[in-house]
Design a protein that fits this description.
49% helix; alpha/beta; 12 helices
C-alpha cells in the first residue's frame, strides 16, 4: 500500500489502516521514518482536531476502568473515542507487559472506539516517543476524543502535558496525609483532579480526599490558561459510573473557554515548538549510535580512561568528528 493510499483510508476512518499507520510511526527504521514523515504531511491538510486528554495516576488507581467507563459514556453521546494506552516495556523483548486492551473488553468491542497499547520503550515519563504522531493519526481518522494514558505518577510524567489539551490526574481515596505523596510538579500540571473509587465504603473517604485536594489546588499559583474555579478536584466512580457526565461537562467547559480566549491555539503552537526541539535532540543523539561514531567513542574513551586525554578535550574532538560527518 502506498503512502497516499494509506492516508486516504485513514481519512475515511479505516481502523485497520490506522493501526497499520501507528505501527509504521513506532518503527525506528530509517525508511519507515521517511514514510511516516510523508504520511503525516499528507494528512496535515485535513485540519481535523480532536480533544486530546492526557490521563495519569498511580498504579492501581483504576485508570483502565475509568477510561472504559468514560469512553463508553462518550460513545453513548455519539462521539468517536481513541485510547493510546502507554504500557511499561518488557526489559527483555521491549514489548508491552500489561496489555491494557485486554482490560477494556467492552470498549474494545465498540466500532466507534480504537484502543492501541504502546510500549513506553523506556522514554521519559512512560510516554512513548511516537505517541504524539499516533495522536495526529487518530485526529486525521476523525476521532473526536483521544485519551492518552501514561504509566504512573511523578514529575517525569508531566511530559504528557506537552501532547494534550487537558491533563487529568486520577487519584485514589486516602487520608489527607497522602497529599505528601503527590509531587508538586504534577499537581501544577493538572487541569482536573479526579478522585476515583467514590463508591461503597470508600465514598466518604473519597469526598474528604477531594476536599483536601481542592484546598491544595487553591494554594497553587494561578495560571493564565485557567478560568475561575480551575484547576478543580471532583469525585468519580468508574465502577458505578457516577460523576463521569459532570466531569465531562467540566472538561468541555474548560476546553471551550480556552478556545474562546486564545489559549487553545497558543498551547498547541507551543507544543509544536517543543516537539520540534525534541526531534532535533533525538536526531543528534541518534548520530552517536552509528558504527563509525561508536568506534570513535570507544577509541576516545580508551584514551580518556588511560589519562592521555581529558574528558573535555575528548568530547570536543568527538563533536568535531560528528560535525564533519
Amino acid at each position: 500500500m502506498t503512502t497516499a493510499e494509506l492516508a486516504d483510508r485513514i481519512l475515511k476512518g479505516d481502523r485497520r489502516a490506522l493501526a497499520r499507520a501507528i505501527t509504521l510511526v513506532e518503527s525506528t527504521r530509517a525508511d519507515h521514518r521517511a514514510q511516516t514523515a510523508q504520511l503525516l504531511e499528507a494528512l496535515s491538510g485535513a485540519g481535523r482536531q480532536a480533544l486530546r486528554i492526557g490521563l495519569s495516576g498511580t498504579p492501581g488507581v483504576g485508570k483502565s476502568t475509568f477510561i472504559e467507563s468514560f469512553g463508553m459514556m462518550l460513545i453513548g453521546q455519539g462521539l468517536r473515542v481513541a485510547v493510546l494506552a502507554v504500557d511499561p516495556s518488557s526489559a527483555r523483548s521491549g514489548g508491552s507487559i500489561l496489555g491494557d486492551k485486554t482490560r477494556m473488553e467492552r470498549l474494545s468491542r465498540e466500532p466507534n472506539a480504537f484502543i492501541r497499547p504502546s510500549p513506553s520503550q523506556s522514554h521519559l515519563g512512560g510516554v512513548a516517543r511516537r505517541s504524539r504522531e499516533a495522536i495526529a493519526l487518530c485526529e486525521a481518522a476523525g476521532f473526536d476524543v483521544v485519551l492518552i494514558e501514561t504509566v504512573g505518577v511523578g514529575q517525569s510524567e508531566t511530559v504528557v502535558s506537552e501532547m494534550s489539551d487537558l491533563f487529568l490526574l486520577l487519584l485514589a481515596p486516602a487520608g489527607g496525609d497522602e497529599l505528601q505523596g503527590v509531587k508538586r510538579g504534577i499537581m501544577e500540571m493538572a487541569d482536573m483532579i479526579l478522585v476515583n473509587k467514590a463508591d461503597g465504603d470508600l465514598k466518604t473517604t473519597a469526598t474528604r480526599t477531594c476536599a483536601d485536594y481542592a484546598g491544595a489546588l487553591r494554594l497553587l499559583r494561578k495560571r493564565p490558561q485557567d478560568p475561575e474555579g480551575f484547576p478543580k478536584a471532583m469525585t468519580v466512580s468508574a465502577v458505578e459510573e457516577h460523576g463521569l457526565d459532570q466531569a465531562w461537562a467540566e472538561m468541555r467547559a474548560l476546553a471551550d473557554w480556552r478556545k474562546q480566549n486564545g489559549h487553545w491555539d497558543a498551547n498547541r503552537a507551543e507544543q509544536a515548538r517543543y516537539w520540534f526541539d525534541q526531534e532535533v535532540r533525538h536526531a543528534l543523539l541518534a548520530k552517536l549510535e552509528t558504527p563509525q561514531a561508536r568506534s570513535e567513542m570507544d577509541r576516545l574513551g580508551a584514551e580518556v580512561g588511560s589519562g592521555r586525554l581529558s574528558p573535555s578535550v575528548a568530547a570536543e574532538r568527538m563533536l568535531r568528528t560528528l560535525a564533519s560527518g
